[in-house]
Write a structure and sequence with these properties.
- The chain is an alpha/beta fold and 348 residues long.
- It has a single domain (3-347), classed as TIM Barrel (Alpha-Beta Barrel).
- 37% of the residues lie in helices and 14% in strands.
- It has an 8-stranded parallel sheet with strand order 9-8-7-6-5-4-3-10.
- Helix 3 (108-122) packs across helix 4 (141-153), helix 5 (167-180) runs parallel beside helix 6 and helix 9 (266-282) runs antiparallel to helix 12 (326-335).
- The radius of gyration is 20 Å and the shape is globular.
- The two termini are 32 Å apart.
């Protein structure tokens, strides 16, 4: 893999980041997100081993993933490694216990409790990046940022980040950090892919202006950008995430829409046809084209998930050694363009 710097820091991360949302099972019997197949500890450790062998040094997790089990699985593996060789990121903010009403949000109490739990599960005494998982409507952002800043001051956290923000929220965080003299936001994890580009309108211009590294998640849109689905197919019988959502449409999220909304979308199928042609030109997969498109945007590292070593190896094949041409990038940009109204048209 290639290595890129987290902006305004000396930290270099692999341009592919391994996400751990598919590690472990929920202790509460609750299906987290839409993952139909989770990796047990042995499989997760084999994926982590191969990721490291391929040059990966950046691993992302959250206390929400399998309600803490993902962190525990990663921690058992990390405890056998040279800690300083890896950049470890986790998140706080989403409910980490569905049966406990206080186990959610970004209050000072919760942030200071959750960091200690995460560090214990991860078997480390610091996180390279600690991220607010989402905006909290209940807690003043000043309280959250003061708590995160204290974690930096006492050495439990090296840098802070956030995820899943809109433009005004990100700018608010930047301004509060500036005027209160707090640690700057270093990273933003945001859903970004060929089917989700709205962050280009407001969020990413803030990142560019303020020196915040962009870390796209869901590069394959929950599986829709792999090219393995056919128009009119019955996907509800397969074991994919798309198939899981097709069987359980109440579990559909914006990151993995219901099959009924995508199967008849002509724009989606035109995009897949274009990606297939480009993939054949490079002897690559459609998924690799989707990830490569992101890597040639102004991003630092692309967060991928993997449920097997072979899937990991295939997707990491987008990392280096080839590139989409300028013409191919233009075609993909044009085919995936978003429809916008005033005043956003003035920004494009």
């Amino acid at each position: 893999m290639e290595y890129r710097s987290i902006l305004n820091s000396d930290v270099k991360v692999s341009n592919i980041c391994l996400g751990t949302m598919t590690f472990g099972s929920s202790p509460h019997g609750v299906v987290t997100y839409q993952c139909p197949s989770q990796s047990d500890e042995d499989k997760a450790h084999s994926i982590l081993n191969r990721f490291a062998e391929l040059g990966g040094n950046y691993i992302d997790t959250a206390d929400r993933y399998s309600f803490g089990n993902a962190e525990s699985i990663l921690g058992k593996w990390l405890g056998k490694q040279s800690r300083e060789k890896f950049v470890i990121a986790s998140k706080v903010g989403l409910p980490s216990d569905p049966n406990h009403p206080l186990e959610a949000g970004l209050s000072r109490r919760r942030i200071t409790e959750c960091i200690d739990r995460s560090l214990e599960r991860l078997r480390t005494n610091y996180l390279d990046i600690y991220q607010m998982h989402l905006w909290s409507k209940e807690t003043p952002i000043e309280e959250s940022l003061l708590a995160m800043n204290d974690l930096v001051r006492c050495g439990k956290v090296k840098s802070i980040g956030s995820s899943n923000l809109c433009g005004w929220q990100l700018q608010k965080i930047v301004d509060v950090c500036h005027f209160m003299g707090l640690s700057k936001l270093a990273t933003l994890q945001q859903q970004y892919n060929l089917l989700c580009r709205h962050s280009e309108l407001e969020v990413f211009p803030v990142c560019e202006k303020e020196g915040i590294s962009i870390l796209p998640w869901s590069p394959l849109k929950g599986g829709y950008l792999t090219g393995k689905f056919k128009r009119g197919a019955n996907v509800s019988s397969d074991g994919s995430r798309v198939g899981f959502v097709a069987r359980n449409e109440s579990r559909a999220l914006e990151s993995t829409p219901a099959w009924s909304k995508m199967s008849g979308n002509d724009s989606y199928w035109k995009l897949i046809d274009l990606m297939r042609n480009i993939a054949e030109n490079h002897d690559k997969t459609i998924a690799q084209v989707a990830i490569r498109w992101l890597l040639q945007k102004d991003v630092t590292s692309v967060v991928i998930g993997a449920t097997s070593v072979s899937q990991l190896e295939s997707n990491v094949g987008a990392a280096t050694g080839w590139a989409l041409t300028e013409s191919e990038m233009s075609e993909l940009n044009e085919e995936s363009t978003i429809t916008v109204a005033y005043p956003y048209k003035r920004l494009l």
